[in-house]
Design a protein that fits this description.
Distance between the termini: 39 Å
CATH superfamily of the largest domain: Aconitase, domain 3
Radius of gyration: 25 Å
Strand order of the largest sheet: 7-6-5-8
Number of strands: 20
Shape: globular
CATH architecture of the largest domain: 2-Layer Sandwich
Structural class: alpha/beta
Largest sheet: 4 strands, parallel
Number of helices: 23
Number of domains: 3
């Protein structure tokens, strides 16, 4: 938290100013969790009371969020989806959100999940099935008797992956499991009673036998879901957990670091750390591994970053924090980390091994694994359940069948397999039932929000924000100025980028740590920033100058103007000289040459929309 304040004081001051300048804006300070978990555990009411013309009206709770994983709240029956930041800001200022009435695809769930698989496994199977079917731009609703067998936490993990399976929503209706969740997370009994009464009267209460009229229907049999892994470069590429070796780059060993070595093992993201059953299962696997004398190899960077401040209390009450910490899975923070690219540097042994030819692999309980997203030097990643992340960390590499091959050895040399340490489902459920306390969630959020450093933070109290022209974090962007003309007006343009198919918004928008030697790094250093502490692009989103210099630098972006051009670079056509995109754009601006980007199919798909659009607009407006 101290580091957060040191690095991001300007951003925090802007947010605190905004909370005073706008009547209806509430800011939750650092340390209060990932926004989607906050929505799910703290803010969602499912049914809210509005005072209109002197009368109280009960109305359904809805949500518009500035992140694609906003649909996680669909898991408890709140209709919500992600929009771009500009759209959400417009809504916050009172403008309506408009959209075409969407097609709704129904996903019938039948049967029951095997007890040794988890919400993450189901979410990955749903992602594979729906991505293959095609649900882009559509709502998805889950129905059928299998829904009633899923806890609200499991439903939320599946709903969270909506952008990965391509849908706008992944909606689960309200039922007794929803009411139980409200009470388990400390909502007042009268609020839970209102939700049930309202939903029953309005016809919104879930009926497992109902067969609604959908545009299309798919069926998923829950009993057929197995432990899986998705990757190594897309979340929809499901495969059995034991099949990772067949899909990674062979590479070589370097010293004691094996081929296919696991560089990063992270229990991370809102998707799966919000499900306490998976956290308890991970803790039990860690306890069993420690009892067997296993340890994580020194080249693996481990971390646990739950989305909720209540996770720590749950794990400690269950007696599982100690074995997790013994294996290196201590809580590094409550927020987005590895899943969004905030993984930090590789372990020194792994960094040396990569220089020696090892092709590193990451394993994480997140929702995205595009090449370079987790770390610039890690192009292959697998999405897994939290306990399976620890299993791969113990094994130290992904070049094995994790289901059958030994993952370590006891002190006497006998092999330890996954079956030896995999948590028993009955023990998971019993331990969870004993460790869960209804007042944990709200009490921990109260403590997190009573942040003394936030309260003491000095922020402007003016009506208009006083921009600091020397700031490298918050600057007024040029795209909001009136009168900016179109960059093309019947002129002959030069291509600055020629791209192939499937360039997503994640390829366009910069993410992760700001690398040394890049245009963004040079810009910041020239303005007095410390070369070894440039922060991450996500922290610089309020400074268009830094962000626009990081566009298209994802390691998977190939500029087809010339073979072998490094990401983030282009060819200046008149001179034939290769240079950075930023330098070329400036040179073309001096020459008054309009520019275009030529791209293949599905350009701009994905959900990192804001800077994929604003970055190009900033470049044009600034000139």
């Amino acid at each position: 938290m101290q580091r957060e304040r040191e690095r991001n004081a300007e951003r925090l001051q802007l947010m605190k100013w905004a909370s005073g300048a706008f009547e209806k804006l509430t800011v939750h300070p650092p340390g209060t969790g990932i926004m989607h978990t906050l929505n799910l555990e703290r803010l969602a009411s499912i049914v809210r009371i509005d005072r209109r013309d002197g009368e109280d009206w009960a109305v359904p709770d809805t949500l518009i969020g500035t992140d694609s994983h906003t649909p996680m709240v669909n898991g408890i029956g709140v209709l919500g989806w992600g929009v771009g930041g500009l759209e959400a800001e417009a809504a916050m200022l009172g403008l309506p959100v408009t959209l075409r009435i969407p097609e709704v695809v129904g996903v019938r769930l039948t049967g029951e999940l095997p007890r040794d698989v988890f919400a993450a496994d189901l979410a990955l199977v749903v992602t594979q099935r729906l991505r293959a079917h095609g649900v882009a731009g559509r709502f998805v609703e889950f129905f059928g008797p299998g829904v009633a067998t899923l806890s609200a936490d499991t439903r939320a993990a599946v709903a969270n992956m909506a952008p990965e399976y391509g849908a706008t929503t992944g909606f689960f209706p309200v039922d007794a499991r929803t009411i139980a969740y409200l009470l388990e997370t400390g909502r007042p009994p009268e609020a839970a009673a209102l939700v049930e009464q309202y939903c029953r009267k309005q016809g919104l209460w879930f009926d497992p036998a109902a067969e609604p009229d959908y545009a299309e229907v798919l069926t998923i049999e829950l009993s057929g879901v197995a432990r899986g892994a998705a990757g190594p470069s897309r979340p929809q590429d499901w495969r059995g957990a034991g099949e990772t070796a067949a899909f990674i780059t062979a590479g070589v060993a370097a010293g004691d670091v094996p081929a296919g070595a696991v560089a990063i093992a992270a229990i991370t993201s809102c998707t799966n750390t919000s499900d306490p059953r998976m956290l308890v299962a991970a803790g039990l696997l860690a306890r069993n591994a420690v009892a067997a004398g296993l340890a994580v190899p020194g080249w693996v960077k481990t971390s646990l970053a739950p989305g909720s401040p209540a996770a720590d209390a749950l794990l400690r009450r269950a007696g599982l924090m100690e074995p997790l910490e013994a294996l290196g899975f201590a809580i590094v923070g409550v927020g987005c980390t590895t899943c969004i690219g905030n993984s930090g540097p590789l372990a020194p042994r792994m960094a040396d091994a990569v220089a020696g030819g090892v092709v590193p692999v990451a394993v994480l309980s997140g929702n995205r694994n595009f090449p370079g997203r987790v770390h610039p030097e890690v192009r292959e990643s697998f999405l897994l359940s939290p306990p399976m992340v620890i299993a791969f960390a113990l094994a130290g590499d992904a070049a094995r069948d994790i289901e059958r091959d030994p993952i370590g050895h006891r002190a006497d040399g006998t092999a330890v397999t996954l079956a030896d340490i995999w948590p028993d489902a009955a023990e998971v459920d019993a331990l969870l039932a004993g460790a869960r306390a209804p007042d944990d969630v709200q009490r921990r959020y109260d403590a997190a929000e009573a942040n003394a450093e936030w309260a003491a933070l000095d922020a402007p109290d003016t009506m208009l924000f006083p921009w600091n022209p020397a700031s490298t974090y918050v600057r007024p962007p040029p795209f909001v100025r009136a009168g900016a003309g179109a960059p093309l007006d019947g002129a002959t343009a030069r291509p600055i980028l020629v791209l192939g198919d499937d360039i997503t918004t994640d390829h366009v928008s910069p993410a992760g740590a700001i690398p040394a030697g890049t245009p963004a790094a040079r810009y910041l250093i020239e303005r007095g920033e410390t070369p070894g502490d440039l922060n991450v692009f996500a922290a610089r989103r309020g400074n268009w100058e830094a962000m626009v210099r990081g566009l298209y630098t994802n390691p998977s972006v190939d500029n087809l103007l010339r073979p072998g051009i490094a990401p983030g670079r282009t060819v200046h056509a008149p001179s034939g000289e290769e240079m950075t995109l930023w330098d070329a754009a400036e040179l073309y601006a001096v020459e008054a040459t309009p520019l275009v980007i030529i791209a293949g199919e599905r350009y701009g798909t994905g959900s990192s929309r804001d800077w994929a659009a604003k970055g190009r607009r900033c470049s044009a407006s600034a000139r």
